[in-house]
Design goal:
Blueprint (H helix, E strand, L loop, with lengths): L15 H11 L4 H6 L9
Length: 45
Amino acid sequence: MIGACPVSLLAWGPHPEITQAAVETLGADDALVRHLGAETAGLRE
C-alpha cells in the first residue's frame, strides 16, 4: 500500500512548529484557546 502512495504523503506527520505558530497567532484571549485551556499545549504533540 505504501508503495502506491505518492512520495509527498510519506512526509505527513505532526508539525509542532506550525501548530505553535498557529496558537500564538490566535493569542491567549481567543475563544478557542480559552475553551481548550491547558489542552492547547497538547496540540503540539
